[in-house]
Amino acid sequence: MAKRKKPNRRLFEFSKKDVARRIQRLPPQEVEHDSLQISRELLDRTLGGLRERSGGWRESGAIWIGDLKDSESRVRDVLLFHDLCDDKGRSLSLELSEEAKFALYKELAKRGQKLVGMIHTHPEDWVDLSGIDKANQLCSRIGFWSLVLPYYGERGWAIESIGVHIRVDSGWHWFSKEESLKRIIVK
Ligand SMILES: [Zn+2]
Q: Do the domain assignments include residue 9?
């Protein structure tokens, strides 16, 4: 769900100062203590599924569902977009059909679980949320996570290269690398 026509390095359009300022920005109070917990097994299943589906050329996505307790989100299961519907994955785009969303909400109600977050791949190192990513809302709850995995997931899990975003009252907050390390807990 990158909005660019070509995979040019969007980051370089900003000055270094702008980027530094953005990265240093503090999280808003409403998500100050939020964290996301995922087991190694579920994380591996997520990364494997995304990498395989992306196949080095197209975007892929996954949804994390589970429990929410205060400001702690705990992942209990992963659902891949392409298992839910034809995700129409292309080099810079991805979809989750309305039917798939509807089926997902029904499944969540049945399981008594909640939407925790989602993760999708981008072609290169640009891991901000595109305008389309921001508009394509699966969930508008404050505290909903949205992670962006670079290089179509081919380089595995390295938190410093992953875009870690969280839904806030005023839109989306992009966590710094240091914050991401503290907030995404793999165990
Ligand atoms: Zn995207």
A: no
Ligand 1 centre distance from Cα of residue 100 (Å):
19
Distance separating alpha carbons of residues 28 and 182, to the nearest angstrom = 16
Q: Is the pLDDT of residue 126 over 60?
A: yes
Domain contains 131: yes
DSSP, collapsed to helix, strand or coil, labels residue 90 as strand
Domains held by the chain: number: 1
Compute the average pLDDT of residues 19-28: 67
- Taking the centre of ligand 1 as the mean of its atom positions, its distance from the CA of residue 14, in whole angstroms, is 18
Length of the chain (residues): 187
The alpha carbon of 133 and the centre of ligand 1 are apart by a number of angstroms equal to: 5
Torsion of CA 103, 38, 46, 170, to 10 degrees: 60
pLDDT digits (tens, 9 = 90+) for 84-99: 999 999 999 999 999 9
| Band of residue 137 on the pLDDT scale cut at 50, 70, 90 | confident
Q: How far is the CA of 149 from the centre of ligand 1 (A)?
A: 9
Expressed in angstroms and rounded, the spacing between residue 106 Cα and the centre of ligand 1 is 25
pTM (2 d.p.): 0.87
Please report whether residue 8 resides in a domain: no
What CATH number is given to the structural domain containing 143?
3.40.140.10
Contact (CB, 8 A) for 184 and 159:
yes
* Distance between Cα 61 and ligand 1 center (Å): 9
Query: Which residues span the domain enclosing 114?
Result: 29-186
